[in-house]
Amino acid sequence: MFTKAIVRTPAPSMVNGLTSAQLGKPDYNLAIKQHAEYIKALESCGLDVICLDADPDFPDSTFVEDVALLTANSAIITNPGALSRRGEVKGMRAILDDYYTQIYAIQSPGTLEAGDVMMVGTHFYIGLSERTNRNGAEQLIANLESYELSGSVVELKDVLHLKTGVAYLEHNNLVACGEFLSHPDFQEFNLIPIDATESYAANCIWVNDTVLVPLGFPKTREAIRSVGYQTVEIDVSEFQKLDGGLSCLSLRF
Length: 253
Ligand code: CIR
What we know:
alpha/beta; L-arginine/glycine Amidinotransferase, Chain A; three-stranded mixed beta sheet; 6 helices; globular; binds citrulline
């Protein structure tokens, strides 16, 4: 179970965030409203939400998931592959000192963004992407192994981050779309396939047995309900315009 989450208020500069989505510029005022609803949804699942101030120097800094990996024992500050995001780690390090005594950092030439890391119990799947390289993944695996945890790499083809296309919902249930449906690493899971027309909704999050899903993807919502979860829908359209999904907007621990 999670008890806390860290989020960061979007800055007005978010309209200049990285994207390949071709959905237009985000509406900042609407993004602020959606972010507030997202916080409420996390709170409704029992989490204390720590909301960091907007950081206008970093347009993508609302996507806090990418700059740290939080485990039961330690925090690992990442080294984002996107150069424009690398400086985000400083502000995250400062806050994590309040919650963790064991804090590590991925070092160059290793790069890692934690949107590429999916926790399944004591094992961590690490996507090799344009943002996360093998050296970064190996540093993370060595760190995990020092805590008797484990990690393995997954080569990505079409997605920005691993968790763009898969989401672990505990109880051996794995939401998956596209390249992950037939991926050999994931065949032991109870796969919940996501229709190609709703691939954005593969980025959903399990929070204490409720699953947060993006608004507007009814097939995905029903597929997740049909295996027994309560779902909460949240409109994150303005973050979708920046290739960001529900998981990217918080660190849950
Ligand atoms: C980026 O390209 O870095 C941001 N615009 C979106 C990051 C999304 N994060 C994630 O999937 N974990």
